[in-house]
Amino acid sequence: MALAIFDLDHTLLDGDSDHTWGQYLVDTGLVDAQVHKHRNDHFYEQYKAGTLDIHEYLAFALKPLTQYPLEQMLSAREAFLKERVLPLISQKSRDLIAHHKRLGDTLLIITATNGFVTYPIAELLGIDHIIAPHPEFVDGRYTGGIVGIPSFQHGKVTRLNDWLTEQGFDLTGSWFYSDSHNDLPLLEVVDHPVAVDPDDRLRAVAESRNWPVISLRDGV
Fold it and tell me: Could you give the CA distance from residue 128 to residue 130 in angstroms, rounded to a whole number?
């Protein structure tokens, strides 16, 4: 048995749940369409460029949770999962998850997308363990802040090391699947790094280091 770690957006999902959630809020009128879409798109471009200020972005992404009753946001999330997320889960992703389960591996998602969006996605994928930026929740309401270190870039390694200590696991025989150069710090510490439909920067690194490059997109 080993630890099989997965990035979420553009890896197990054929799209970005964080950006898609922001667009869903625009489409359903829960945020100002012009302002929110512009900032959502701007942050997404920063993420792809590797220049994202994760704290600034999370403050933006979590703000809508502070503006509406919890019940309303939970209902919106349920509809979002059905309408926008389920279509992003490919059969190849499901097959890869099933493969590691057959091997008896422990499966873990590590994502920079906040837990309000991603915790239920892990459930949809049948993965018991997830590390994500954890939204702060006080007196029955979200505050707009997070608890602890964001799991982004080097923060993914920090959060993983804490989790390994808590769970009594190590990285012997470990796998990590990711699409993004932002995940190079974590790809470099596992035994089996795998580039999944990688961006150009990750593809170049993967090819130079002879890492496997695979696709989880159906039809590819």
Answer: 7
Active site residue 7: yes
Q: Considering only CA atoms, which of 147, 171, 165, 176 is closest in space to residue 12?
A: 176
* The one catalytic residue among 7, 105, 183, 197: 7
User: Catalytic: which of 9, 18, 183, 197?
Assistant: 9
18 is annotated as an active-site residue: no
CATH, residue 129: 3.40.50.1000
Residue 30 covered by a domain: yes
Count up the domains in the chain and report the number.
1
Asked if the structure places residue 106 within a domain, the reply is yes
pLDDT tens digit string along 15-68?
999 999 999 999 999 998 888 888 988 888 998 888 989 999 999 999 999 999
Quote the domain boundaries for residue 26: 3-214
